[in-house]
Amino acid sequence: MKVLKFLAKFLQTIVVIILMIILTALWAFAHEGVMGPWFKSLSSTAGGACCGPDDGTEDVDWEDVADPQRPQIAYLVTVDLGGGPKKVEVPLDAVVKTPNLFGRAMFWGSIIRDTSGNETIRVRCFMPGTRG
Hints:
By secondary structure, the chain is an alpha+beta fold. Helices cover 30% and strands 30% of the residues. It has one domain. The protein has one helix at 2-41, and strands at residues 43-44, 48-49, 57-58, 61-64, 73-79, 86-91, 106-113, 119-127. The model has no long low-confidence stretch (mean pLDDT 83).
């Protein structure tokens, strides 16, 4: 009797593990299968291809910039690429014009260091979305 209860519990556990593996694989396929090509298609005139979500920073804080003195700046984004959060001006040509199917705001950029050690953030792409 104890052996049957143990076997039943063991089989339940095996079934749950198999279902978890299948569901994880389906989620990964759906995520990469649907969103992957869309992410790879994103680009801006400033930096070319934006790449995927792993290359960018998601859920960043951002705000519209409506300054007639600086019409080339579209957004002000707070992003942390290492070394703490920094406010970055996003030029118009770095804004992704494609509708945001991802939902969350995404920022793609890199840190550039000059010969003196000064750092600037180069904005490759920014896609407005929900605020971080």
